[in-house]
Specification:
Layout lengths: L23 E4 L5 H9 L3 E7 L2 E7 L3 E4 L9 H7 L3 E4 L3 H8 L11 H12 L3 E8 L2 E11 L2 E9 L4 H13 L8 E5 L3 H5 L3 E4 H11 L14
Parallel strand pairs: 8-9
Antiparallel strand pairs: 1-3, 2-3, 4-9, 4-10, 5-6, 6-7, 7-8
Helix pairs in contact: 2-5, 3-4
Length: 229
């Protein structure tokens, strides 16, 4: 099991008080491991926001949540061929994956040094994980996210070679397809046109939170267990 972090001193607002028309539901708190684990278990994730010219730590629960059904990933023949060209590794270079996802060359970047540090700490406690696509012993792409029980909350992905991030996503879906698959939840925050093309659907907030509740007491997938690393 992951190492339990110190409890958060912060109290998030109850979901019954969230604005039904606003993805942003809270401001403040911190990025300590206990705060992050608590937030993900409540259906929240953090991102920096600018309001009235000031930077804040925002906590989001999208009104329409992006979710990838484990049986809904669209795998083209070319992607299936590409998957045979890469080696999949789990958690071997987590910090490098996060750094690549947060590269300043990427548009609309939000992964600040503070976020990289916070998720690195979460990874070392066994709560955050990377799925990596390697070729010729070089990191070609990957993704990272937070795993709490049966929830895998995907944070970001990147590629340096063709299809590498998609291959990492395919590998993630495959490893989540275990005997608990019907209660696992693969969350990608928002549905974008690119993610929609891969099979991501939108779920109303209330439906998402109910699925999350059912998923939290599911064991982690074997490759993510700390004692297996």
């Amino acid at each position: 099991m992951p190492i339990a972090p110190a409890p958060t001193p912060w109290a998030f607002p109850a979901c019954s008080s969230w604005d039904p028309d606003d993805d942003l539901v809270a401001l403040g708190a911190d990025l300590e491991p206990g705060t992050l684990v608590t937030a993900y278990g409540l259906g929240l994730f953090p991102m920096p926001v600018t309001l009235d010219g000031e930077e804040h730590l925002g906590w989001f629960s999208p009104v329409e949540r992006g979710v990838l059904p484990l049986d809904g990933l669209r795998v083209s023949r070319s992607l299936r061929r590409s998957s045979r060209e890469y080696e999949i590794r789990i958690d071997t270079v987590f910090d490098e994956v996060v750094a690549a996802c947060g590269s300043p060359d990427r548009a609309d970047g939000w992964i600040t040094p503070e976020f990289r540090h916070a998720y690195g700490r979460l990874h070392r406690l066994g709560w955050a994980h990377s799925v990596e696509a390697w070729r010729d012993d070089r990191l070609a792409g990957g993704l990272y996210g937070v795993s709490v029980g049966g929830l895998f909350a995907g944070e970001s992905m990147f590629h340096r070679e063709r299809d590498a991030s998609k291959v990492a996503l395919l590998a993630l879906v495959d490893l989540l397809h275990d005997r608990y698959a019907d209660r696992r939840l693969l969350d990608v925050q928002w549905q974008t046109p690119h993610l929609e093309s891969l099979g991501v659907v939108r779920r109303p907030r209330a439906d998402y939170l109910e699925s999350l509740r059912r998923s939290l007491d599911v064991p982690l997938p074997d490759p993510f267990r700390v004692d297996d690393q």
